Structure prediction request, 447 residues.
Amino acid sequence: MSSIRLVTEIPGPRSRALVARREAATPPGAAKLTPIAVDHAHGSVVVDVDGNHLLDLAGGIGTLAVGHTPDAVVAAIREQAAQLVHICAIVATTESSVALAERLNALAPGDAEKRTVLMNSGAEAVETAVHICRSATKRQGVVVFDGAYHGRTNLTLAMTSKFNLFKKGLGPFAPEVYRMPFPNAYRRPEGMTEQAWVDWHVANLDHAFTAIVDPSHVACVVIEPVIGEGGFLPAPFPWLRRLRELCDQHGMLFVADEIQAGMGRTGKVFAIEHAGVVPDVLCTAKSLGGGMPISAVVGRADVMCAPHPGGLGGTYSGNPVACAAALAALDQIASEPFLARAVAVGERLRDRLDRLMDRHDWIGDVRGLGPMLAMELVKDRRTKEPWVEATQAMNAQTLQRGVITIRAGLFSNCVRLLPALDISDAEIDEAMDVVDAAAAEVERTLR
Ligand SMILES: Cc1ncc(COP(=O)(O)O)c(C=O)c1O
Prediction:
């Protein structure tokens, strides 16, 4: 039986009416990627306000590794909400927030003793991680990379790449942020092997720490193990390892921003585990809460304990309901069967994407790590000129056929897939049949 059931055109009249109210009540700066309004959802199926059933390959931009309204998470939320909705961790201690910190300390890579501070959003976690590293090192510099996305607070916007979409007109931004090149394997010089490109970037790190900023000034290096918003670009493992060596050599702290790539998204709890690199500090959010807004900074105890009492936290940090949801989500995400299914989902999706790329020469690249996969659309495979219109058309065409997909990429020319990681084979096949049909339509109308 198919999961997709369309009873109106997309968007239907009720979606259009609610979106019109949204547009009248909220500013366009808080943008939307689709014209649909949603009533309810479960697993990978979203039901819009017109009663259309759609398959979700956007997953709340990566917040729904365990799917929509997962039974265990919903039960945990209900139980905790009936008992205590909020107290504020600054006022008193709750079981669920302590248990979550203990759980994350145990899960984070590395043998060192750990501490966790809970926050509300990804950006807040990254900003907090920087505060902690500055306090621990008594240095100010923050190293980030081309293509990075770290959030929308003033400091994290300074750390974010992609100026036009995120930063235009919003500065001035926080100082002491230094951006270095990222080894984007797809956009390497013509004729250069991937190995030579990675080797060049590994060697160039020494140069960058002279030309761009001196290591003695750097508190931390903040890196997404797989760049998310910037286009699902896995950081090459030898390059990550060289960064780790340089951090050790110069007393800089290594911060893994796992907000999009973590929580099972690449088939391991944390994406950095693939590289065998142990970060000093790790930021997690999105799928951590099973859909509830919660984030965490987890790190070496000696580093995490540097800020003075009162230097960290906030009114909602460690909210008991969000923590209860996160504990239930983590029970699932950190389990062997869940991670094994995530790997299988990745293999099935990649097979479909590779076959799609064989059929359409405007799909320039299919890439990612495990089930964190995207395709980059280009006008010409040799020049790699980004094809934004095709990307918009793909998103629109899949939606009209009942599958939610969203874009990514420094040039907004990637289609990224962020499904629930326990999506069934039948749902994958149905959704990818729609992606195939959307691609055929793009070929027919735009090529
Ligand atoms: C890698 C990464 N860091 C930070 C953030 C910011 O998270 P939030 O939107 O919860 O503030 C995001 C959001 O997409 C992200 O992908």
Notes: The pocket of pyridoxal-5'-phosphate is lined by residues 61, 121-123, 126, 149-151, 224, 228-229, 257, 259-260, 285 (CB under 6 Å).
